Amino acid sequence: MKHNEIALHQKNKRFAQLDKYLGEFVYGGIDGCVTTFAVVAGAVGANLNSNIILILGFANLLADGFAMSVGAYLSAKTEKDQYQKHKAIEYWEIENIPEKEIEEIRQIYRAKGFEGELLEQVVAVIVKDKERWVDVMMKEELEMIEDYRSPFKIGGVTYIAFLLVGLIPLSVYLIDYLIPINSDPFLWTILCTAFGFIFIGLLKATMNQTSRFRAVFETLMLGACAAFVAYFVGDFIERIL
Question: What is the model's pTM?
């Protein structure tokens, strides 16, 4: 029984770790699927052959995915560095101008409705511990909450999601290149990509606790609009050149 409980606890911890980065997976997946599908649709609209579609698609998949993951990493790292900078400032102020910081705590909790002896008790409890004091100042005064997630993992999950979901619009053309199929690859690409958008939409609904139908519909419409614009831009440019 103990062994089963330990295994269940470890499994729950793994799911909790995955859940922390679900947002990055969803948005990386959406961007990967939309941009790659748009590249394929634009190339089809321009009547480019399958080999060129694969070249353009994989170039976009690898380069744009890497750029997005670097952006996600730098954004998360900058936010973390900003938090640490302001935290160090708060520690300095507590050490050097404690009276001013105590008064700020008093004002914060007075604004929350605390008065008289109860207010002073709350202030005394908070300022008794420097870590607690700084934590309250960060949350209440600066409205900053520390993100304990790894910037490297944020960038990595974004890139993996971009590659995995972004590969869907290219998969039919890749199969067609290896084992030629008789039907139009673009029609199968539309179908497969739609399933990719449905999957991402369901993940998005789970993450945001919103309507599944609405999340799937919004994701499908986003992909359809991007593909529609790309297809007709490709078609227009091919006609005038």
Answer: 0.81
